[in-house]
Design goal:
binds flavin-adenine dinucleotide, 5-stranded parallel sheet, FAD/NAD(P)-binding domain
Length: about 425
Amino acid sequence: MNNSISRRKVVGGLAAVSMTQVNAKETIRGRARIVIIGGGFGGASAAMHLRSIAPHLDVTLVEAAKTYTACPFSNLVIAGLRDIQKQAFGYTNLSRAGIKVVNERAINVDTHKKSIGFNDDRTISYDKLILSPGIDFRWNAIEGYDVASANIMPHAWKAGAQTLQLREQLRSMDNGGTVIISIPPAPFRCPPGPYERASLIAHFLKSHKPKSKLLLLDAQDTFSKKPLFEKSWLEYYPGLLERVPGSESGQVIRVDPKTKTVFTDFDTFKADIINIIPPQQAGKIAHLSGVTDDTGWCPIDAITFESRRVPDVHVIGDSTIAAPMPKSAYSANLQGKICAAQLVRQLSGLDPISTTLNNTCYSLSTPDQGFSVSGVYRNNDGIFSPVPGSGGTSPIGQPISSKISERHQAFEWFNTITREAFG
Ligand SMILES: Cc1cc2nc3c(=O)[nH]c(=O)nc-3n(C[C@H](O)[C@H](O)[C@H](O)COP(=O)(O)OP(=O)(O)OC[C@H]3O[C@@H](n4cnc5c(N)ncnc54)[C@H](O)[C@@H]3O)c2cc1C
């Protein structure tokens, strides 16, 4: 199924793009059909990269939504600081680039016949399939938290209607109300995301409803960029924000939407607004394709992103088991490009080639300040491992000018990856 490690030429330190220096047009025999399911940061980036490095390939992108709503910066929308339209991206530029865009939900994948099915019984065939379906929620992993409860206690962890709902709840809450954010155990999409959300909601409350309180009920004891977040909370939101860690009974195990109550092992909390970020798993189509394991996520070869369970199916983005790489848009975009390049090598009869990958996650602690965490990873043994001595977070005592500059970099990063993915 997967190429053995001994066949691999291990070339460390290569950037994704350098792998594309194979004259794919001359070497690939036939017109291979590549189908990608999921047009988010992973899938759209993979599609665009395939078109640019191997323009003669037949590339189809299957995406359920006509408009993609990006999650990075959606916490600003919740805090009333950004228009959701700025998060919206269409697929016209992908069509213009020669990608066949099918705006429908794939409902099954037959990995023996190599075909994808839709609601109207139509199917499309593939030679190679890339799955980038993002996450789905483990409904009822928190007792009582199902699709119906999410209408009262929004998750806002897939950007769109839920983002606006949480924003509206904040707008209409009385000054003096209580807001709860419930944070699940890892792994989940965007490890620093809940704490950025807490910071920006705290900013909203401080500015508009200063008698209010924000309570974080956290299943985790520690979290991404903890010292940086905690320092900024003390500095900007003292007395407004409180966090209960997992070891002090912070994990929410049951909810009652009717009474707006949440339960942990030992405590009960009532609030005016309850934002439940539920436990997560790989997108449903990954389960239906047989590429998930008992964890609910997808084991992959770290060099090629080929599934360890099903041949000719590659998985990228949030659905994968790629730790220590986080589930982020930065990772999904880079994984999409590397996967595309490895597929072209594979179709050209070339050995896979190892790479060095990286990730940077920016978080906003106030609307005009940010900080970041970076990591560098190798994949030469078929698994991801951190490069010793690399990466790290912004310094804890960084001057305000650096925090302002990091916020600016965050926007530049967002503009770059959305351009790469959506043209
Ligand atoms: C509040 C928040 C803030 C965040 N901030 C950041 C940040 O600052 N930086 C960062 O790097 N990351 C951030 N992230 C994480 C980032 O959004 C995700 O990691 C990223 O979107 C993952 O990309 P993906 O391609 O795996 O999945 P997605 O972007 O979710 O794309 C999956 C796509 O697949 C489609 N799909 C699923 N199933 C099917 C099917 N059966 N048929 C057709 N289409 C299907 C979906 O419609 C969706 O468009 C944030 C996340 C949240 C929630």
